[in-house]
Amino acid sequence: MDQTDIPAPVEHDRAVFPDGLTLDCGTVLAPVEIAYRTYGTLSANRDNAVLVCHALTGDQYLAEPHPLTGRPGWWTRMVGPGKPIDTDRFFVICSNVLGGCMGSTGPRSPRSPASGKQRNTDADEPWGTDFPPVTIRDMVRGQHALVRHLGIGRLLAVVGGSMGGMQVLEWAATYPEMVFAAMPIATAPFHSAQNIAFNEVSRQAIFADPDWHGGRYWEDGAIPARGLAVARMMAHITYLSEEALTRKFGRRVRREKTTPATPCTVSESQSLSLFGEIFEVESYLRHQGSSFVRRFDANSYLTITRAMDWMDLGAEHDGDYAGPFAGTQTRFCVISFSSDWLFPTSQSRILVRALNRAAANVSFVEIESDKGHDAFLLDEPDFDRTVRGFLSGAAEHAGLGQTRTTVSG
C-alpha cells in the first residue's frame, strides 16, 4: 500500500454548467461539471424519474461495471429490470457528487480562470487542497442543475443511503416542490460527534502519509496511498457490525505469503516476521484499503468527509429538525437497520419525530439485520420489499401508469 499507480483518466458522461454554482461558503465555482449515468427510459410526461444519491465512497456507476475496477456497480442488486428500483418502469439517474473524483468538478479537476485566485502555473493544474469547501446542500445544488438540464421538473423519488440519505434529506428540504417521494436510508439529519471523530482519524492518516506533500502529491507523481488505505480501513470497520465480522472472519488466521510479484513493505515484512500469520479480518481490511486507492482521490476524500461533518439540518432552525420540512408535501419512507451503529435507529427516530411534527406523510421501517451499516448494499429481502413497495405506492399516488408486471422481492 506504499505506492500505487495514478489511475488513468476515464471519460464520463457529463453536464457542463458554464455559470457554475454559488456555494454555501460564498464562492462562485464556475464552470461546474456533473458526471452522471442514467438507466431506463424517461416517460413522455417526464414523470418517472428516480434520483439515486451515492454514499461517501460510491459514484455514478451504480448498475453497471465500474470503468476503473471492472467490478459490478455498487447497487446492481437493487437497480435494473424487474428489480426493486425497476428500470422497466423508472428512469434512474445517479451523479457523482460535487467534490468527487469520477468526473464531477472536484479537487482533481483543473482550475479555471472563472474560479478565482490563480497560481502562476500550468492551466491544467488541479485544484487540490485549494478546492473550496462544499456542503451536502452544495452537492444537491449540482444534482438539481443536472435534473433540470435533463428536462425534468419533478422527481418521482429521491433515494439514497448513508451520505446518500443526507442528500435525500437536503433535496426534500431545499427543493420540496421537486420531490414527490423521499427515501432516506441508514442516515440522519446531522453528523454525530462520534462520526466526526472517525472522519478526523481517517483524515489524519492521510496527512501523515509521507507522500501527502501538503496535498500537492501529483507534482511528485505520487499519491498518499498508505494514508488513504488506512482511512478506508478505518471507515470500513464502521460500516460493519460485530456480528458480521464474527460470522465472516471470526478469529481465523492465514499465512500471508509474499512473492516478487507482490512485494510487501518494510513494516509488513516486520509484521510477518514477528507474527508469522495474520488474522483473516486483517487481510480483508488490507484488501479493502489497497483496492480503494486505485479508484479514489485523497483530496476528494477529505472534501467529502468534511461535507458530511458539516451536515446539520437543524442548524438554521435553532436546532429544530422539523423546521426544514414545514409544510412539506413530500411522502417519506425512513429506513434504518437494527445493527447499524454508525447511523443507529435512534437517529432515524429523531428524523421521524421531526417529520411527524412537520405533519409530513412519513412511514418508518427498522429492518432486522446483523450486517451493520452496509446492510443497504447487501442481500436483505425485507429491505428489498420495502423499497419496491414504497416506490410502487409512490408511483400509484403520483398517477403513473403500470408499464410492466413487477416480480416479488
What is this structure, in a nutshell?
This protein is of the alpha/beta class and 409 residues long.
Secondary structure layout:
Layout: E1 14-17, E2 21-22, E3 28-29, E4 32-39, E5 49-53, E6 79-80, E7 85-86, E8 91-95, H1 136-149, E9 155-161, H2 163-174, E10 179-185, H3 193-207, H4 225-239, H5 242-248, E11 253-254, H6 266-275, E12 278-279, H7 280-292, H8 298-310, E13 331-337, H9 345-357, E14 361-367, H10 381-398
Parallel strand pairs: 5-8, 5-9, 6-7, 9-10, 10-13, 13-14
Antiparallel strand pairs: 1-4, 2-3, 4-8, 11-12
Helix pairs in contact: 1-2, 3-4, 3-8, 4-7
Distance between the termini: 40 Å
Shape: globular
Give the uncertain stretches in residue-range form: 113-121, 258-273, 403-409
Q: Beta fraction of the residues?
A: 15-25%
- Total number of beta strands: 14
Contiguous helical run count: 10
Secondary-structure-based class equals alpha/beta
Instruction: Tell me the series of helices and strands, N- to C-terminal.
Output: EEEEEEEEHEHEHHHEHEHHEHEH
Main pleated-sheet profile: 8 strands, mixed
Strand order of the largest sheet: 1-4-8-5-9-10-13-14
* Oligomerization category of the chains in this entry: single chain
> What would the average pLDDT be, to the nearest integer?
90
Alpha carbon gyration radius: 21 Å
Relative helix content = 25-40%
Walk me through what this model shows.
- The chain is of the alpha/beta class and 409 residues long.
- It has 10 helices and 14 strands.
- Helix 4 (225-239) crosses helix 7.
- Helix 2 links the parallel strand 9 and strand 10.
- Mean pLDDT is 90; it is low at 113-121, 258-273 and 403-409.
- The strands form 4 sheets. Strands 1-4-8-5-9-10-13-14 form an 8-stranded mixed sheet, sandwiched between helices.
- It has helices spanning 136-149, 163-174, 193-207, 225-239, 242-248, 266-275, 280-292, 298-310, 345-357, 381-398; strands at 14-17, 21-22, 28-29, 32-39, 49-53, 79-80, 85-86, 91-95, 155-161, 179-185, 253-254, 278-279, 331-337, 361-367.
